[in-house]
Design a protein that fits this description.
Blueprint lengths: L13 H8 L1 H23 L4 H28 L8 H19 L11 H18 L3 H6 L1 H4 L5 H36 L6 H24 L12 H10 L1 H30 L5 H29 L1 H15 L14 H37 L4 H6 L1 H20 L3 E4 L2 E4 L1 H23 L10
Antiparallel strand pairs: 1-2
Length: about 450
């Protein structure tokens, strides 16, 4: 019997699931702010040329692609007295929190904020460090395959996604209500960091460190098991796992649609549905509540009917309902009722999609363990970043092309026709993903029934 086969994944408590999932709150906050507001902060607030800001952020994306793969492999390969995952969480989490603070608060560290070259170099260095250290989520996520049995992973993923959306809700409130209005003040007096920006940023950075470091000491260390640590051989074995590669392709191709949805949805509610002020915040609250409820519904669906059937149903749900964006061609679409209906459709679609990757990556890694006697959860979690980042690099191009289409006037509102047709475009992308998944992808394994 292989040594790996002696590993026991016992049932866990709800408290352990919640404890493991909690760090997702803080990482969602900092990544959301970095992705949503960092460009505007340095371009509008500090006056760094847009091309330089864009270059710095693109280097950040490249760094995370490499770092996620590296830390996935190294956390598989090196077993310490603290186990495989804990040492990297303990090192990377403080780097993530500190680099976030350095990125958002250059006024605390740089002597002359009128020096745009210095600001650019500062942004370049710390965005690379931030993105690379965000790969803390790779050994952390790989841990799921070792900490929780297969039947508990949908529940754990539900907890994680709930934490993600709590973090995203906090991020949106801070970005929309505090950070964005502060850009004008920062532009006028860049050497003075507004207090309402200073303290939340410090708190968010510290929370990242506290949340991730806390699970290092509160979660059990996984047992030692033998593993072939040769990188090239392991990489070739992963590539030979045809089902895994098909899953990555499906995830990457479908991400075209999901990236369009997440990028455009709030702009659609503001511009096409004409929602602002109180109505806009009502819709934002509906998004969070709808997402949390949908996570529970999809999780139960997965447990009762399996992953593949549930994923195919999710694709069909989105394919049928996303073309409701065509309502933007009708003048009376501008009202809160349509806004809530639309945002609930989006919430249900995104909740289901975000639930799956955490589950099937851990399950495929365990399937490899069943077949070969070796668990390489880190590599299986980190390897997709290389391919997915290639797909994601095209996402902004698709969004930019769609939103640059000619404008139309509907009632009293004028907007790009792209803000109306993006729903059907997403449906077409997901139709391809649906048939590819149905024919080629395996997500449920016989050993799960044992």
């Amino acid at each position: 019997m292989n040594e790996i086969e002696t590993i026991q994944r016992n049932e866990t408590t709800s408290l352990r699931k919640l404890n493991y999932s909690a760090p997702r709150i803080s990482s969602s906050i900092v990544l959301g702010i970095e992705g949503f507001a960092l460009f505007a902060l340095y371009y509008l607030g500090y006056g760094v040329p847009s091309l330089l800001v864009g270059f710095a952020q693109s280097m950040g994306f490249l760094s995370i692609a490499a770092a996620q793969f590296f830390f996935g492999w190294i956390s598989d390969a090196k077993y310490t007295k603290w186990g495989r995952r804990k040492p990297y969480i303990l090192v990377l989490a403080p780097l993530l929190g500190l680099s976030f603070i350095f990125l958002l608060l250059p006024g605390l560290f740089l002597p002359d904020l009128n020096d745009k070259n210095a600001l650019f170099i500062w942004l370049l260095i710390w965005d690379i460090v931030f993105r690379a250290s965000y790969s803390v989520t790779t050994p952390y996520q790989a841990w799921m395959a070792e900490q929780f049995p297969v039947n508990e992973r949908p529940h754990v993923s539900q907890y994680q996604n709930t934490m993600n959306y709590i973090g995203n809700a906090v991020m949106l409130l801070f970005t929309l209500l505090i950070l964005t209005p502060a850009f004008e003040d920062i532009a006028l007096t860049p050497d003075v960091t507004p207090v309402l920006v200073l303290f939340p940023v410090l708190i968010f950075g510290i929370l990242v460190i506290l949340f991730y470091v806390s699970i290092v000491f509160s979660m059990p260390t996984e047992p030692h098991f033998k593993m072939d640590t040769r990188l090239l051989k392991n990489l070739l074995n992963i590539i030979k796992n045809k089902n895994y590669m098909k899953v990555i392709f499906m995830q990457g191709f479908a991400s075209f649609a999901w990236s369009i949805i997440t990028t455009v949805m709030l702009t659609f509610t503001q511009t096409v549905l004409g929602l602002s002020g109180t109505n806009y915040y009502i819709v934002a609250v509906a998004l969070v509540i709808g997402f949390v409820i949908s996570l529970y519904v999809w999780r139960k669906r997965i447990q009762n009917h399996g992953k593949k059937k549930s994923l195919l149903l999710l694709f069909l749900f989105a394919i049928i309902l996303l073309p409701t964006t065509l309502i933007g061609l009708i003048p009376f679409a501008s009202n809160i009722i349509f806004g809530i209906i639309f945002i609930l459709i989006v919430a249900a679609s995104l909740a289901g999609w975000n639930l799956f990757p955490y589950i099937y990556k851990a399950d495929i890694a365990e399937d490899e363990e069943k077949r070969t006697g070796e668990l390489k959860a880190g590599l299986y979690d980190g390897f997709p970043s290389i391919i997915l980042n290639i797909f994601q690099a095209f996402g902004p191009l698709i969004i930019g092309a769609v939103l640059s289409l000619p404008e139309i006037t509907v009632g009293a509102l004028t907007y790009s026709i792209g803000l109306v047709i993006w729903g059907p475009i997403c449906s077409l992308i997901l139709i391809v993903a649906y048939f590819f998944t149905k024919k080629f992808v395996k997500l449920d394994f016989d050993w799960e029934k044992e």
